[in-house]
Target: DNA-binding response regulator
Amino acid sequence: MYMRILLVEDDINLADVNRRLLVREGYVVDVAPSVAIAKAAVVDIKYDIILLDRMLPDGDGLELIKFSEKKNIPNRFLVLSALNDVDERIQGLDIGADDYIPKPFEPEELLARIRAALRHGLEEIKKEIKCGQLIFDCVGRSFQINGDAFVLPRRELIVLETLIQRVGRVTTRETIESEMYGYDDEILSNSLESHISKLRKNLKEHNIDASIHTVRGVGYILKETTNA
Model:
């Protein structure tokens, strides 16, 4: 079964280079040079992934993410943009981008990011999410390790659940804190760091092959630990 990609890019030469790259990898690619054309495309066609530039002739490409959410059109977005300051990346991730790749980028990195995003898309239709030995039951909202319950205090549970929902991808601290504040409005400013520290200790004590990494200035990422 082929995978269909929408490439939202107004630079004709860059769009052609990336389209050729993707076609060689076996993807079916549509190109939209503006937000308006991209909106029309996502209404009519189901895409497996959308590669999204931001600085488009008729506005910020992030508007397409907002539009898709408003219209209840599920999509996976990889932002490809020269707007790569920390604040810009945080904005893109918080709005709903699945990944944010600064321009310029290496072709092989783009292909790897696409493969990763597509794998995560397949995971999301399942009833559980795995990260090494750590398994999250999306229905029961509970964790297991090798079949045994992995019990956590409520706040640590919220943080780990938020991270594993985006396993292998960056989760901004604002996203995590918004989930935490929904449960407790009295969380202190340094509370997140404290819970991350406790989670790291808990994962290590249980010899779980998953770890939480800090992405400086942005947030955190949960990854499976591999032996070097």
Remarks:
- The chain has two domains: 4-119, 128-224.
- Helices lie at 12-24, 35-44, 62-70, 86-95, 107-124, 154-164, 173-181, 191-205.
- The chain is about 40% helix and 25% strand.
